[in-house]
Design brief:
2 helices; alpha+beta; 2 strands
Amino acid sequence: HYNEVTQIAKKIEKADLIIMATPVFVGSCTSGLKALLDHFAYMWLVHRPRESMFNKVGLIITKLITCKYTH
């Protein structure tokens, strides 16, 4: 686990642009993206972000399909 997580963290730190794409699932992002965001939150938490995160550009892409129910 440590080796995989370390590789992802290094790629996030090296990236100029971070793109996250997810469908909206029951009003929120998917569990996989939520787990990733929770796991790496230490990198960009407001009270103590990593300096390497200051100039990052982030893009979030979501997709929501609405259904109209008729009764």
